[in-house]
Amino acid sequence: MKHYRQTGIRRIISVWIAVCLFTFLITACGQSSTNSTLGVQQSAQAGSQEAVSPFEEIASYEGADREQFLLEKAKQEGEINLYTSMSAPDIEHIAKAFTDKYGIKVNIWRSGSVEVRARVVTEAGAGKLNIDMVEAVGPDIEAIHQEGLLQKITSPYHKDLMKEAVPPHQEWVAARINLIVQAYNTNKIKKDDLPKTYEELLDPKWKGQLGIESTDDEWLAPLAMEWGEEKGIQYFKDLVKTNGLTVINGHSLLTQMVGTGEVPIGLTVYSYKVDQMKREGQPIDWFALDPAIALPSGIGITKNAPHPYAAALFYDYMLTEAQPIMLERDMTPTSTSLDTGLQNVPIKFLDSANLLAELDKWMNLYEEIIVRQSTK
């Protein structure tokens, strides 16, 4: 089997490095009162966490005039500060549309989901968390919730989303998902010859034709739990032993290699990326074995947010008017009123809390079963 990757524990190392970096910046550098990235005066926010939060009123208000109720005070606040893992062009486009409508500025700091999580936790630990909102992948924003850093909110727009998008604690909500599907090179494989089930991937005819991303324990874990842990783990061992896997570092690279035909079938690619390449005329398409795993990306409001009304207004916006914007930009929104083309896809949401509780176990299993075997 071919092997294109970094080590499987790179996310743990990334978190550790990010925490150390942010701790150093906060403690050694004192974190400048003028944050050039956010463009806000930290000194103006000092002590804001000590103020009585109006959030109970915001979170529970469901009147017909909710938008106007929030907007009146949001205009007084004038801005929100957001840490996000959404791609820069996408979040900047959404933020501009929000600002154009309401006149509220969105100050954005953007990085990978792991880095967002690390910065939030580190700044909170140092007593210097002065942001309003966080947007990150499910396990990372769930970890921020478990640190006690997010505020419960009961939005009237939760009911318009996929039911799995709203965790029971309601401290974050999935405004979008990344759907993990299977992709194939249409020049190499006929649609009628594609496997119909995961079991059919064990057919020896697929030997040497399957590729997988190097850190997709978020995909393996829910499948194994769906089938029964022992049976699921044995399935992946059998798959590797029978047909081998080409392990690729990065979903984009894996998808590109399917498009070139170097990897005829990619087992863990994002549907939106395939759609983009297909529109460009590349010989690629996707199909979904049952179940297809959905990775939520959640948005939440921090406790003691310095701009709570503006934050709540943006939160509602992300669940309403931003939803079709996401769809237009090849993201998969969680609104049930939009035609995402996934109505007939057997979707299973990743349970972020369950994965987080046993993350080390699943990362180690993925490393042991999938990655290490790819070098033999």
Key terms for this structure?
alpha/beta, 376 residues, D-Maltodextrin-Binding Protein, domain 2, 15 helices, disordered N terminus, two-stranded antiparallel sheet, 19% strand
What would your notes on this structure say?
The chain folds into two domains: 8-177 and 296-342, D-Maltodextrin-Binding Protein, domain 2, CATH 3.40.190.10; 178-294 and 353-375, D-Maltodextrin-Binding Protein, domain 2. By secondary structure, it is an alpha/beta fold. The chain is built from 15 helices and 15 strands. α6 runs parallel beside α7 and α8 packs across α9.
Structural class: alpha/beta
- What's the number of structural domains? 2
User: Judging by the overall fold, what is the CATH architecture of the largest domain?
Assistant: 3-Layer(aba) Sandwich
Sum up the overall morphology in one term. elongated
Low-confidence stretches: 1-10, 23-52
Described by strand count, sense and barrel closure, the largest sheet is: 13 strands, mixed
Strand percentage: 15-25%
- Give, in order, the helices and strands: EHEEHHHEHEHEHEEEHHEHEHEEHHEEHH
Determine the mean pLDDT: 88
CATH superfamily label of the largest domain: Periplasmic binding protein-like II
Can you tell me the CATH topology of the largest domain?
D-Maltodextrin-Binding Protein, domain 2
> What portion of residues is helical?
40-55%
CATH class of the largest domain: Alpha Beta
Termini gap: 7 Å
So what's the oligomer here?
A: single chain
Radius of gyration: 22 Å
